[in-house]
Design brief:
Blueprint lengths: L7 E5 L3 H10 L5 E6 L24 H10 L3 H7 L3 E4 L4 E5 L2 E2 L8 E4 L2 H13 L4 E5 L1 E8 L6 E8 L6 E4 L2 E4 L7 H7 L7 E4 L4 E8 L10 E4 L8 E8 L3 E8 L9 H8 L6 H6 L9 E3 L4 E4 L11 E3 L5 E2 L7 H19 L6 H24 L12 H16 L4 H11 L11 H13 L4 H6 L11
Parallel strand pairs: 1-2, 1-11, 2-7, 4-14, 11-19
Antiparallel strand pairs: 3-6, 4-5, 8-9, 9-10, 12-18, 13-16, 13-17, 14-15, 15-16, 18-20
The chain binds flavin-adenine dinucleotide (FAD).
Length: about 475
């Protein structure tokens, strides 16, 4: 807790990153205002500013731990509202390159709910904090500085659909406005350099439809994940059970193999994955929504940490700073890591806001580096991916992890080693432990099947073989 009690902070964006940042800021600021462009709903609804919320959102365990630490009691709220608690290994069927992962009691308890339910529960908890005010229905238009142009002092706002503008002052501004963040543009207008951007685009598309869970569903599995199979089957799918006895069925395709939004074609696409199990599950299920699609999935990292000149009293977090190809389900956990980094930076600064933004950007860059490395390295596996250079190290990692994804279906120990990496509890480098390396090398010496063999058999490893 700092001694500078009368200070105010403003957060731009009232989604996951903005809400978590606001909660952290209340330990150091007397007033925290969240400015959100959308008129926020009272309940769990998809809104214009977060169109991704139609699509399956898996919350990794690391993210859930951080969020529960910031908002104690949130997990109870989620369960009370219908979130399912699943054992990742026993209740979820996961298909990797080599087939279905073994069904095991993994001890990893995952929460399965819709993204609107999660965001609504977080928002409700955050709004209970008396230091936080949410001003929804306001667009942030530009940032303001002091006379010397050195320090951010606030912003101009406009109520949605109106012409008048308003000035809002702040001692600290946090940009959590997501992929469409205007901070680079605003920096340019203020005479600052814009951050360098790394963009790596695997051209991933999503299409999602929600269904009632059919009465005929035996309940012998609750969630299903079918990975795309490099290099032959760029398509995959996820079925997530959510509140209200529904399935959120997301189909995805890499390399511009976008899943269609046409209803019949959606089903047909589901039939052409590495396994037909998703198709079998939904072919007679009753849809409760149309098909929604999403294609802006480029991995994009804005290197604020490298800027030689950055205004004081400003920082950028969440997707506004670093947005990911969503197939690895890291974005919300990265937003939580950003909140953690903010808490640490504020603690370390002992109340001094000068240099805080630059220190935060360095700290958050470090915190998210493993997630960025995992996603972008994996995306570079596809020759159609644009924006990155595949180096020797990438090729070695591709060779190695390809073996890991092939072996997981045959090896419980490997699957147990993979799950904490997937949930961001351990770094991807833990898959290079000597015991795993020995298995990979032994497998490589035995020889690997040719990829064509996989393409010709629709069902490489039918369900049951791995159960
Ligand atoms: C298709 C898809 C699937 C995903 N699946 C997963 C998953 O399975 N697991 C996971 O962890 N993550 C997933 N993600 C990522 C996740 O959605 C985001 O990382 C997460 O929401 C954090 O984003 P954010 O809060 O930074 O930004 P956003 O959620 O994009 O929110 C930005 C907010 O800022 C507001 N805003 C924007 N501009 C302004 C402005 N000028 N003034 C005022 N308000 C403004 C917007 O209205 C919005 O509310 C997925 C993303 C996509 C696209």
């Amino acid at each position: 807790m700092t001694n500078q009690i009368n200070r105010s902070a403003v957060v731009i964006g009232g989604s996951i990153a903005g809400l978590l940042a606001a909660q952290v800021l209340t330990d150091h600021f007397e007033q925290v205002t969240i400015i959100e462009r959308d008129h926020l709903p009272d309940g769990a609804e998809v809104r214009n500013g977060t169109p991704q919320a139609y699509h399956g959102h898996a919350l990794m365990l690391r993210g859930r731990q951080i969020i529960e630490g910031l908002l104690p009691g949130l997990e109870n709220d989620l369960v009370a509202e219908g979130t399912l608690v699943l054992d990742q290994g026993a209740d979820s069927m996961s298909r990797f390159k080599g087939g279905w992962a073994p069904r095991i009691n993994s001890g990893l308890k995952v929460f399965s709910m819709s993204r609107p339910l999660l965001e609504n529960a977080i928002r409700r908890r955050v709004m209970q904090n008396p230091k936080i005010t949410v001003r929804d229905g306001y667009d942030v238009l530009e940032l303001l500085t002091d006379a010397g142009g050195k320090t951010i002092t606030g912003m101009m706002l406009r109520p949605r659909g109106k012409q008048d503008t308003e000035m809002l002052t702040a001692d600290l501004v946090v940009d959590a406005s997501g992929r469409t963040s205007k901070t680079p543009e605003w920096l340019g207008q203020l005479g600052y350099p814009q951050p360098e951007e790394t963009r790596i685009d695997a051209f991933v598309g999503y299409a999602t439809r929600w269904y009632e869970v059919p009465e005929t569903h035996k309940g012998d599995w609750h969630a299903m994940w079918i990975q795309s199979v490099w290099p032959t089957i760029p398509r995959g799918a996820i079925i997530l059970p959510i509140e209200g006895n529904r399935w959120q069925v997301t189909l995805f395709g890499v390399a511009k193999d976008y899943p269609p939004t046409d209803e019949d074609a959606f089903l047909e696409y589901a039939r052409t994955l590495a396994s037909t199990r998703v198709y079998e599950a939904i072919k007679n299920a009753k849809p409760v929504t149309p098909v929604h699609s999403f294609r802006s999935t480029v991995n994009r990292l804005r290197h604020y940490e490298k800027l030689a000149r950055f205004p004081e009293h400003l920082l950028v977090t969440g997707d506004a700073y670093c947005a990911f190809n969503p197939t690895y389900a890291q974005g919300m956990t990265v937003a939580a890591l950003g909140a953690n980094a903010l808490a640490e930076t504020l603690r370390e600064s002992s109340g001094n806001l000068d240099g805080l933004g630059a220190n935060f950007q360095k700290r958050v860059a470090k915190a998210i580096a493993p997630a960025w490395m995992m996603t972008t390295t994996e995306d570079l596996r596809w020759d159609t991916t644009e924006g990155g250079q595949k180096g020797l190290m990438d090729r070695i990692i591709h060779w190695y992890t390809d073996k890991v994804f092939t072996l997981i279906s045959q090896d419980e120990e490997l699957y147990r080693a993979f799950l904490p990496v997937q949930h961001m509890l351990k770094p991807p480098t833990s898959l290079f432990a000597p015991s795993i390396m020995r298995k990979v090398l032994a497998y490589a010496l035995r020889g690997t099947p040719k990829p064509q063999a996989i393409r010709s058999t629709q069902e490489v490893n039918p369900v049951g073989a791995g159960d």
